[in-house]
Amino acid sequence: MLMVLAGTAAFGAGLGGLVVSRSTGTTPDAERPEGLLWPQVRALPALELVSDGGQSFGTYDFQGAWSLVFVGYTSCPDICPMTLAQLNQMHRRVQEDARLSRMQTVFVSVDPERDSPQRLREYLGHFNDDFVGLTGDPAQLELLTRALGAVYMMEEPDAHGDYLIHHSSAIFLISPGAELAGILTGPHDPAGLAERLRAMLDFMQARA
């Protein structure tokens, strides 16, 4: 099922994978995966982050191909490894679609204290060597997550300095023009992700 997000007010991807309109309170059915599209794409702000290869990664690096962006952290015990594994399997299902042959998957860490570029590279290597990890200055990470509408909340560290970060399972669709085009909300499965992604692209092409 596809839903087109109405209005121009900001939308947030809530914890648990829900997407909520901050202006109307409208929430899609939490029991069904949804593909959510903006009525008009929204340009990402100018960004200066650091990739898992230790190189600068800016808004321009989203240009030229479709991108899927997932926000999390490498110490995540459940949502991150499950979602990244599903994204890896989904990639295999869409390779024959010319629109997605150059698609990049970007994992944005909201834990820059622990997630160095090297740690991100090692972590993503367990899922797909082509996945791109991003970290950087907290202010730059905040700029990106706010633009996406990604919600996360850090717990207080325990006696050993360990902590969890609660975040959604939402996956954000970025257009080849470096614009936020839509949101894939959870729960996810590889076949469902591939089907919804193709449906979203078909819909956008039909209305263009």
Summary keywords:
208 residues, 9-stranded mixed sheet, disordered N terminus, Glutaredoxin, two-stranded antiparallel sheet, 27% strand
Describe what this molecule looks like in 3D.
With 208 residues, the protein is an alpha+beta fold. The protein has helices at residues 79-94, 117-124, 138-148, 190-207, and strands at residues 2-4, 11-13, 19-21, 35-43, 48-51, 56-58, 67-72, 104-109, 132-135, 152-154, 165-167, 171-174, 179-184. Helix 1 (79-94) links the parallel strand 7 and strand 8 (104-109). Helix 1 (79-94) crosses helix 4. The longest helix has 18 residues, at 190-207. It starts with a strand and ends with a helix. Belongs to the SCO1/2 family. Cu cation binds at residues 76, 80, 167.
At a glance:
Disulfide bonds join 76-80. One of its GO terms (molecular function) is metal ion binding. With 208 residues, this protein is an alpha+beta fold.
Distance between the termini: 19 Å
In sequence order, what are the helices and strands, one letter per element? EEEEEEEHEHEHEEEEH
- Report the biggest beta sheet as strand number plus sense, adding barrel if it closes: 9 strands, mixed
Radius of gyration: 16 Å
What is the number of helical segments per DSSP (H or I, 4+ residues)?
Answer: 4
Mean pLDDT: 84
For the secondary structure, the number of strands is 13
What is the CATH architecture assignment? 3-Layer(aba) Sandwich
Looking at CATH, the homologous superfamily is Glutaredoxin
CATH topology: Glutaredoxin
> What structural class do the secondary elements suggest?
alpha+beta
Give the total of domains: 1
Strand content: 25-35%
Low-confidence stretches: 1-34
Spatial strand order of the main sheet: 1-4-13-12-7-8-9-5-6
* CATH C-level: Alpha Beta
